[in-house]
Structure formats: structure tokens, C-alpha cells
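Notes from the 1:1 (GR / supervisor)

We went over the backlog. Supervisor wanted to see one worked example end to end before approving the batch request, so GR pasted a single chain during the call. The sequence is below; no edits were made to it. Supervisor asked that the structure be written out right there so they could see what the output format looks like.
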Amino acid sequence: QAQLVESGGGLVQPGGSLRLSCAASGFTLEHQAIGWFRQAPGKEREGVLCISSSGTTTYYANSVKGRFTISRDNAKNTVYLQMNSLKPEDIGAYYCARRPFDCSPDESSWNYWGQGTPVTVSS
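Structure output shown during the call:
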């Protein structure tokens, strides 16, 4: 059964770092784009950034440019989201999702989602 499982979330102080992982099972990530999305309490889900199957990064949230990076390790069937200089406004549940090959800002085109991992930024 195909699954995406996020991990690495937690509580961090402002200015701190976290690395989230999105591990795939039941299918290979090789030909998939993987996107990271987040949903803050009381807000709609938003795209954060994405990595295509060829390794191209697309940012959906301008607020994370210069602080967040995405990478993939196809051998480990895992995509990583490195989050640095975290701010209170980065709080939320972080989800990864897949779609074939290329990134897209259209959330309806992402056909498989993980269950999410929570990120809290607080002193």
C-alpha cells in the first residue's frame, strides 16, 4: 500500500531549526514531485515549496525563501525539508504530497498526501 509518512516535527524556539522527512513506501519517489504544504491553526492550507522529479525547487511561500530548503534522496525514497531561522508564523501541521514529475500550485492535482507532522515555534 502506498504511503507517505512525515516525521521530524516538534517544538523549537524562534531562530531554531528542524528537518522534516517525507518517507515513501509502496512506491518509488523517482518519478514523483514532492511538495510540502502547511496548515496553521484556523487558516487554510498553503503550499510551502516543492521539488520536481528532476530536482528543481519551486517556492510557493515567499516567506520561507532563504530559510527553507528541500532535497531528495531517491536511494532512501525520502524527501527532506530543512527549516532554519524558524519564526512563530511557521507554526502548523506540515504535510508532504506527491504528483507525477512536475510541481504545481494546484493542490487538487496532488494525488497522495501524508498524515502531517506538527511544528510549533515558541519560546
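Supervisor's comment: The longest strand covers residues 92-100.
Batch request approved.
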